[in-house]
Design goal:
Elements (H helix, E strand, L loop, with lengths): L14 E2 L2 H11 L6 E5 L7 H7 L2 E6 L2 H10 L6 E5 L7 H4 L7 E6 L5 H9 L5 E9 H7 L10 H9 E9 L4 E2 L6 E8 L10 H11 L7 H6 L9 H7 L13 H20 L1
Bound molecules: S-adenosylmethionine.
S-adenosylmethionine binds next to strand 1 and strand 3.
């Protein structure tokens, strides 16, 4: 690469330099012949060359203008590679990932400072995706695969778990990057489900219920729920009683099915309120 600049901390630039890990990520991504692939943050191209060899079409989105223009030069003669010089948090993913017959495969070693936000944006286009192989800070990854009633279990676990089957592929140690981050990383597999794991009624209400249940981790579920916006339309004691859930529990003890039950009840109550 010409004009190598120092990695930018502000853009989470910890570049992969370990060939073994690169091989394992490519294997885990299991790209199908002719599949469309999105790589977020290709950086210095550790994964990109291999992705370009395997994908039917490859879209790269890179916020570092110098790196984006370097990728453009690299792939000038390959019309199946498109480089988008932009912030992944600002682009319209519905436009970037058009509805193609064979769904998209997303591969990324995500910049850690924005990984949760990126996850929620990808969640918004889950119907367009066949698979995602994402490297995250281990602590963030642990939250996504945590069972109920442990400190790692939280909003991201429940919300992403509704539409994705998430599993841990392998751990990556700091020495596999340049510069080395201070913490371990993890590669996770996300397989979008054709149906949600549970019937939650209105998904916006589901998000509100889950977020409110985790809003004050030391408080009881009842106290958390009653501070939510929807509590203006719903009696939270009645809600908990109808769902046979003890309001003295903490939000983190609820299973996805219990959140779904609460959400369905709130959905029905809100709809009945606005109809009557
Ligand atoms: N894929 C490369 C690798 O594995 O070596 C680089 C990974 S590095 C952890 C994260 C990459 O994301 C960097 O290239 C960085 O410039 C890019 N990036 C950071 N913020 C971004 C954003 N908001 N939108 C798109 N790319 C971003």
């Amino acid at each position: 690469m010409s004009a190598i600049r120092r990695p930018l901390k502000s853009l989470g630039q910890n570049f992969l330099v370990d060939g073994n890990i690169i091989d394992r990520i490519i294997e885990t991504a299991a790209i199908q012949p002719d599949q469309s692939v999105l790589e977020i943050g290709p950086g210095r191209g550790a994964l990109t060359t291999r992705l370009a060899e395997q994908a039917g079409q490859l879209v790269l989105i890179e916020f570092d203008h110098a790196l984006a223009s370097w990728h453009r030069d690299q792939h000038l003669s390959n019309s199946s590679v498109t480089v988008v010089d932009a912030d992944v948090l600002k682009v319209d993913l519905e436009v970037l990932l058009p509805d193609v017959a064979q769904k998209w495969n997303v591969v990324a070693n995500l910049p850690y400072n924005i990984s949760t936000e990126v996850l929620f944006r990808l969640y918004g286009v889950h119907t367009r995706l066949a698979r995602m192989t994402l490297m995250l800070q281990k602590e963030v990854g642990d939250r996504l695969v945590a069972p109920p009633d442990c400190s790692a279990y939280g909003v991201t676990t429940v919300l992403l778990g509704l539409w994705f089957d998430i599993s841990r592929a392998f751990i990556v140690h700091p020495g596999s990057f340049h510069p080395s981050p201070k913490v371990d990383s993890v590669v996770l597999n996300f397989i979008p489900r054709s149906e949600a794991r549970a019937d939650v009624g209105d998904e916006e209400i589901f998000r509100a219920v889950v977020k409110s249940a985790f809003s004050m981790r030391r408080k009881t579920l009842y106290n958390c729920l009653k501070s939510a916006e929807f509590a203006k339309q719903v009696d939270c004691r009645e809600l908990l009683e109808a769902c046979a859930i003890d309001g003295r529990r903490r939000g983190e003890t609820l299973s996805l099915e219990e959140f779904a039950l609460l959400s369905r009840w709130v959905t029905d109550a809100v709809r009945a309120g606005s109809n009557g």
